[in-house]
Amino acid sequence: MISFTKVHGNGNDFIVIENLDRRFETEELSRIASTLCRRKTGIGADGILVVEPSQRADLTMRIFNSDGSEGEMCGNGARCFARYAFENRLAGKTMAFETLAGTMRAEVKAPNVILELGTIDCSKGLFDETVSLLGETFPLAALRVGVPHCAVFVPDLASRSRQDLVLLGRTLRHDALRFPHGVNVNFVQNLGEGKLLVTTYERGVEDLTDSCGTGSTMSAIAAVKRWGLSSPVRVLNPGGVNIVHLDWENDGRSCSARLEGPTALVARGAVLEEAGL
């Protein structure tokens, strides 16, 4: 039997399981993720968050996407992880936890969580590119924020159907020449007054998600570079609002980023045998 908690951050939903005794190996965690994340035959989620011990921080966070692949980092997932750790007395209101993308720090102000993403090296990003997709040409930016991201700038997201965005996102996500390790694709519209409208096609989920924390952060950085937006940037995702705080170094080549948004603990329970694990 596996105990679980269902959480979400602006509709980006996860199943949290504890592996503090390390009884689950990586291969089994991958299988658990792909089984439990199925919307009709499992619990349903964009991924699972695994709580493991750490010798250097309060805890270790591992994330497995719904396709079973292990991700380096997830902004909304990390915020949900911090909320879970605090509510279950595994860490205090301020905490540090290891991820494959480095050590993250978070502060819980329930239901909100503020996640420090550290310093992001923008000199390694691309901000003045274009890309041709399915007969259209779009302005493009690309930058790694924990995981690979790109921003596709569109003038009117509402005019795009869900099917259209999935097709465009999937095409760019699998562009092996431009992104050999795959990429998360953020469709970004400038709403003015420091606000963005963003919808993300997530690598590993292989679909649009209601919110993406690292995607919101990358989109905010790209918007600052493109349109000169000031911090904080309010990012409107289909599932809610993420607030991105950016502190720029003097040369503008790097910035420290904080991601703020709500979290929700939805349910607790146990996985039964007929789930197929």
General description of the model:
It is a single chain. With 277 residues, the chain is an alpha+beta fold. Helix content is 18%, strand content 47%. The chain is globular and about 50 Å long.
Ordered list of secondary-structure elements with their pairings:
Elements (H helix, E strand, L loop, with lengths): L1 E8 L2 E7 L7 H11 L10 E6 L6 E7 L4 E2 L3 H13 L6 E6 L2 E8 L2 E10 L4 E8 L2 E10 L1 E7 L8 H12 L10 E9 L2 E8 L4 E3 L3 H15 L5 E5 L2 E9 L5 E9 L1 E8 L6
Parallel strand pairs: 2-3, 4-6, 11-12, 13-15
Antiparallel strand pairs: 1-2, 1-18, 3-4, 4-5, 6-7, 7-8, 8-17, 9-10, 10-11, 12-13, 13-14, 15-16, 16-17
How many distinct helices? 4
Tell me, what's the shape?
globular
Specify the structural class.
alpha+beta
Residue stretches low in confidence (pLDDT < 50, at least 5 long) are: none
User: Can you give the helix content as a percent range?
Assistant: 10-25%
Instruction: Give the total of beta strands.
Output: 18
Q: What is the CATH C-level name of the largest domain? A: Alpha Beta
Top keywords for this entry?
277 residues, alpha+beta, 4 helices, 18% helix, globular
Brief characterization of the structure:
The chain is of the alpha+beta class. It has 2 domains: 2-118 and 264-275, Diaminopimelate Epimerase, Chain A, domain 1; 120-259, Diaminopimelate Epimerase, Chain A, domain 1, CATH 3.10.310. It contains 4 helices and 18 strands.
